[in-house]
Amino acid sequence: xxxxxxxxxxxxxxxxxxxxxxxxxxxxxxxxxxxxxxxxxxxxxxxxxxxxxxxxxxxxxxxxxxxxxxxxxxxxxxxxxxxxxxxxxxxxxxxxxxxxxxxxxxxxxxxxxxxxxxxxxxxxxxxxxxxxxxxxxxxxxxxxxxxxxxxxxxxxxxxxxxxxxxxxxxxxxxxxxxxxxxxxxxxxxxxxxxxxxxxxxxxxxxxxxxxxxxxxxxxxxxxxxxxxxxxxxxxxxxxxxxxxxxxxxxx
Length: 251
What we know:
globular
């Protein structure tokens, strides 16, 4: 009997505002599939960022909160501490998480807050027009680096998973991508692992998802996928940078 491909219950039946070819929708679906499969939709509270996913509260059937720019981890900390029996996650882009929200991100790892952070890395500021982000790759052309990111002027990109893996309170730091079916499946496994870690009270779990931004990259959706494969993944290697459940405690 053929398998029926249906919309997850945790994913609202409403059109999304994302640009054509944007991979936010894929990650939304994977997250909602995990909520469905774990049966925790009614026990989950999400925190939206400021950025392209600022309207994510329209797409998830679980309770959602809007946070000021960069403060989603701080808001999630308060939500989790006041509702320790709930599952709490943030959904953030690279400008929100790794620029204005750098301190909040680092300190939830340092404190070992028992939350999930879903981090979308498309190496650019998407919502505000395509400026350089903390994750913009050297040489990448953006609205504020028309000749390419010059590391002598703008410094080097922040590798978030590698940084978060150094913190004692981080239970999982994993980088994944959504460019191919195998990678999409791995992304879902990572998100599931993150929520299972929260269930077992292991500390912070951060899943970094390499994503595309066809509009601000100035590319077609297919060209954007190829750039992700040819430029983004080599610079930001996929893999598990820390996993406290692995043999020996860390990987």
